[in-house]
Structures
1.
Amino acid sequence: MLSKRIIACLDVRDGRVVKGINFEGLREAGDPAELARRYNVEGIDEIVILDVTATIESRQARAHTISAVAHEIFLPLCVGGGIRTEEDAAAAIEAGADKVSLNTAALQNPAIITTLANRYGSQAVVVAIDAKRQGGRFAVYVRSGQAETPRGAVDWAREAADRGAGEILLTSIDRDGTRSGFDCELTAAVSSAVNIPVIASGGAGSFEHFAEVFTAGLADAALAASIFHFNEHSVEELKQYLAARQIPVRLPASTRT
């Protein structure tokens, strides 16, 4: 069985890491390069930089932030926010990203998924889906959770995979920043519908939540921010907890026996 990945998310605004609740009420959490350096040492598997206001403000994710983070880590780096064109993706990758994450742009122009997959390989193309419960369905939202679309999360994930996406970054808007646990129903629904990895995001508050999303939620990876940023829990402790419960993870070299 492949190891489950633990991913740290750096939501960046104006060059600083921020975190909110349900995509609102952002508060500062530190310098992205400094946080990336710490996570690299602690044994995080990947880092995602999301420029949370890039799409709204119609600008690219900032190249200097990407470069600063890339210089601090020796692990995969994914960048999202303001990736609207092939040129935007190229700029992010040239700045140091290994993968790019598409959200609003992919919904507006699904063909860009295939274009980027053909150019860089599917492993470099992540489609981010922000979903919220609406009655008996999971509605897809864009523009940093501000605008509802007619698409459902499961159907859109399936189409994104068919068009060449290598991964789905699935965020529950309802759970974002609440620390009440991942939405395992949402995650399992999408994971069961596609044959590519699904990264669960939104709601991490305890080690138990990660175990739940890897088992009941069928997630291949879990992304979190607050639980790591504010030094409440270490990545190493989380991985030891998961390994003790027979959930396969890549342990830091210092803890292997």
Note: The radius of gyration is 17 Å.
2.
Amino acid sequence: MESILIKGLQLIVALSLLVIIHEFGHYLFARIFGIRADRFFLFFNPKFSLVTYDPLTRKWSFFKRNTTEEENLERAKLVKKRFDETGKASWRDTVYGIGWIPLGGYVSIGGMIDESMDKKQMEEPVHPTDFRSKPAWQRFFVMFGGVLFNFILAIIIYIGIAIHWGDSYVPYDKAFGGMDFCDLGLEAGFQNGDVLLTVDGNKINSADFNLFKALESKSITVLRDGKDTVDVEIPENFILKLNDAGIKQFMAFRLPVVVKETILNQPAEKAGLLSGDQIVAIDSISTPSYSEFAPTLLENADKEVTLTVKRGDNTIFVKAIPDENGKLGFMLTPLNEIYPVETVDYSFFAAIPKGIKDGTNQLVTYVGSLKYLFTKSGAQSVGGFGSIGALFPEKWSWYSFWQITAFLSVILAFMNILPIPALDGGHIVFVLYEMGTRRKPSEKVLEYSQMIGLAFLVFLLIYANANDIYRFFIK
């Protein structure tokens, strides 16, 4: 239960940040061009709001019912009057608030048909502060601002990660134990212990290795048994097959069984094992990594076995009796103390191109993965808030939090640019149409398209979250 709460908290904090930045992009460009922003809300607020602040009256309200269209219209008239007197737009023109459904947020732009479907304001004479009164290029930037700010946020986060944590990685060609592969990977022709060398003939850069792109390639070359170079052909639509099988991890570094420290009065200590000993076999069964060692030891619980141990330059044989749980009682030497770890530290100026590159690569990878969405299994893999929350770790980790938040910011930017009515991309399509034809779509067209887009988004939201429920409770 605690882990679910921590995941949920991380999700809400991340989404809150992303929504505020996204809506601020719209808000800022509206302010720059003198367009009225009537409301700026974090979270949705049907019927009532948790908190509102109206700078015109300087009043805070809590658990207040939402204002009616007539009340909104009266306030808008006051804002227009102040603008007519001063000739300037102000942050005081906007009501700020927090809703009670933590699934998004919005900025209500004056003189615009949006998800609020506030028709009363559209019946008023066109005012200089109205969205509809501005030239198409200004309206374009107002609608594009949210997408732009989300992508900039992702880049800023990646820059911060580079500055604070840098890069630490194990070069694939120096991981002498190779990799362990999932069942589908083994069926495709990989073997446990293979060392990755090249993708389509290009040497792997471990610092920038992209597994998604690698599994979309034609072949991956590996070093097998320390001496043979083998080309493994990647099956067609391999990523889709991995997704169908529900495989979350394609491969992992193999961990050699090296003793870090024995536990007092446990079989390992009684057998005389020392720190630095590497167990390479149990009786006649080779155990080059923990993935072979653990099940073999379990099969010999409470039985005397002969361990083949490498100690320095020597190979010795040690008798030991695993306990009833198949354990010898020692701590494993961690991966980063066995394989060489390369660390790259970034200065502020070096982190900027790194952040831009990471953000761009994440966007390209995500866009490339969408082609699998239009398949039966791809549609079934669509997830809602449960799937997004599952991305976060069970224990709070700032590194993981920022990595995932940056990834979600890229997704939010791309999803909002899609040409779907009710999304930013839908509004942008109409603006581009106007710029190209010099003809403005009628308000009826904008209104009906908004309604259709909202209906589609509601359907998609229900479908995605229903998939989560089905996978969690049934599948």
Note: The chain has four domains: 1-33+134-166+346-429, 36-128, 169-254, 259-337.
3.
Amino acid sequence: MRPDLEAHIRHLLAADGVSAGDLADSSGLESALESTGDIAADAVDRVERHQAVPPHLEDALEAIVLPKLRPVFDIHNDTFSDCSSPWTELNSHRDKLSKAIRAIGRVDASGLDIPYCGTAFLVGKGVLLTNRHVAAIFTDGLGAKGLKFKFGIEPEIDLKQEIDSDDEVLLEIKETLLIHPYWDAALLRVKGFPDDREPLRLAAAPPSELQGRLATIVGYPARDPRNDFDLQKKIFRVFEKKRLQPGRTMAMKQCVSFGNTVEALAHDCSTLGGNSGSALIDVETGQVMGLHFSGEYLKANYAVPVWELALDPKVVDFGVNFEKAPEPKPTPAWLNAWTSVSAT
């Protein structure tokens, strides 16, 4: 078995405390487990015991174990159906997660040779948060002044784009307000802010425990040509549509972003390239913990910790919906990145 896949499965099993017996007996997989349950349980048992998994058991692991441990749930009519074990806790938080789902959309742009740019979400009155590398697809410039759309490109956001639905909630993106010089983050202004969709609340401080916290990504995973398509298909099934992608936080980890070594919030939700700009939501509080920006295949995913953005006056001044920040506020060293940006 591929070492990276085996290590990933071992991490997921440990994070959730899942055993071979749990896998074989859990509800929600009856039809699939009728023929593969014993095989999947045997494969899981071998992984847990650090034994080699023979090739004839690998399909059961990929087809049953991975979609169960870090599944991708479909979204219909701005909500989701009952989630099966071990994700039933999501069902008790449906109201606040559905409110979040309604505020998240797919960033499209005419004049491009790609299906769409990424994901963004409402964080203030007419204000969207997304990744710097998403906004850079259609914006020239860096900082908070002099930003212009690239010639011939007209971006917009659709707050729907659900599976088996032609419904649209389209908003015109009028301008790029800010492209951050340190974090992979950007703010956009939209026209026609819908009164029935509330901006998401962003955490202004980290939760008391950052490792193993139940979280979910909401975004638009797209097929990634760099990695195993068959495995992607087994986990995601459908691409480029709005999905609920639960997992757990993995504490803070360093990674490189735009030439800087940043302290990112790591998580193990199943994501793909189109998830750039997705909200990482704390299921318990309903607040956004992170802005997903990258990942290492079958290892970890990385999000901008939004409480860091709460320390940046330039971000706050655009009316981003942060929770009340604790006092006194520290002055992070990365704020010096603004000194290198001209005309800010």
Note: The radius of gyration is 20 Å.
4.
Amino acid sequence: MPSLLHRFRSRHTYHNLVPNRMGLWSLVMTIFFCVSGGPYGLETIVQSGRGMALILIVVVALIWGLPIALLSAELGSAIPEEGGYYEWVKRGVGPRAGFACAWLTYLYSCVDVAIYPVLFVGYLSSIVFSPSNASLDFLVRLAMVAPLAWLNIRGVISTGNTALAFAVALLVPFVVMIGIGFIPALQHIPSISVPLVPAGMTTTGAATTGLFVIMWNYLGWDSISTISREVKDASNIFPKALMIGMPLVVLFYLLPVLVGINAVPDISCWTDGSWPTIAGAIGGPTLRLAVGLGGLLSAAGLFVAGLLAASRIPFVLAADSYLPQSFTTLHPRYGTPVRAIVISAVIYLILSTFTFSELATVDVLLYSSALLLEFWALIQLRRNQPELARPFKISGGTKTVIVMALIVTLLVVTATTQMLIDSWIEIAGLALFAIITGIILMRFKKWRVGA
């Protein structure tokens, strides 16, 4: 198997190794899975209040999801390099900041992508059977992870087509649900959105409780930038895919929740994995089963897209000597970073032995820490490289970009403060782990370069 360490920087060579690249709609649905995978995982937002849930879905999309998507569109069009955000931050802020962004995001992926085998088992249990012991549970997760890892090894065409098929299949039941329940929900909007928050909870408390959930459900707009050199005409297609994906995600959050709370107004019924029950209340047992099966496809799609995006980070870090050269090994037929994919998949499988809540607790913090570096890079590149070609550019000048960055920073600080109150021991342990491993990898690079 050839190594790409000394050839990676040659754009022409890399294009020859990846002759078939992802098109627009496969990219749209891969982004959809990097961010969303449908409304699965959104159920607990309603526990912050029926009205508050609807407000948060829209407002957080505008002040959190949209700025990240716009950042990704501008930098993805200006610097369409393999490694995506790693290259953006490295060029805008410097190599150490680029490494920190990449490593924090990879650690985030280890937490985030490992959630999806857990969700897969959960949805399988709700519609077929519940694994009787830990060994059977592990075998079910392995049966999910292995074929999806193989799809990644086969390349972006296989992965993108799979994401497209999964997205269509899982969204159809929700389209049916929305079709049945939309008009009745519109007729009862004043009643279903009141009270704004549950009895005994303040507006601020409800908003803070729901904020973490909805922020997690809007993460990942920049994730797929890591495969920019595997996308057809990435400078133009990447921004288009983001602008299509953004309203798609928002609509498939807002509308199912709207029709769902009209059919099931009791907020105590809105728990993780409750979409099949809610769908059943709207469309009967057939729709309940279809939405349950969609949960399996959602978890699988989230995993396959997350692995695709994250596996390129060990690849590019190895190309820059932060990791062993073996991570740059390519599959002799498919031209994909096979060892980076396999090792990432194994890590995710191991971490999937933890519970959903244990994994989700640190997701927002890891992602947000890297995201702030990306906004810093966006501002620095605006100031220091105004001549850089930007097929897509955020309108309003650098001041608008700074305002966006400040709003996102405020949300990050709010979420982090809440997490520190609830889970300060886990956060401290995570920070220590990120710092220690980061220092080890930087020392490794120094040893490699100096050798």
Note: DSSP finds 16 helices and no strands in the chain.
